Amino acid sequence: MTRSISKGFGKPFSNAMAMSSIHDRMPAILSPQDYDEWLDRGEVERAPIHLLRPFPETTLQIHAANPRVGNVHNQDAALLDPQ
Predict the structure, then answer these.
(1) Where would you tag: which of 8, 36, 73, 75 has the fewest CB atoms within 10 A of its CB?
(2) For residues 38 and 79, is the Cβ–Cβ distance under 8 A?
(3) Contact 13, 26 (CB under 8 A)
(4) pTM of this structure
(5) In contact, 26 and 12? CB cutoff 8 Å
(6) Gap between the Cα atoms of 37 and 52, Å rounded
(7) Percent of all residues in the chain with a pLDDT value above 70, rounded to a whole number
(8) Residue 17: which of 56, 50, 52 has the closest Cα?
């Protein structure tokens, strides 16, 4: 059975100011203490949508990406260096 996790949320979370220049929606960003629950697929009837909550804007750090990011042929650590 396939379900949309966003069903029941109506309009997606409004975007934090930091993200608004990149995209009109906030991505799902989980806190480390939520990783296990998010990845535990033993519970298949109810998706862990309670973990989808706005991420604190003060925690986000946005940096320019290396122009080589997005090309599947580039797979080296230098992708982490902005140019």
Answers:
(1) 73
(2) no
(3) yes
(4) 0.50
(5) yes
(6) 12
(7) 78
(8) 56
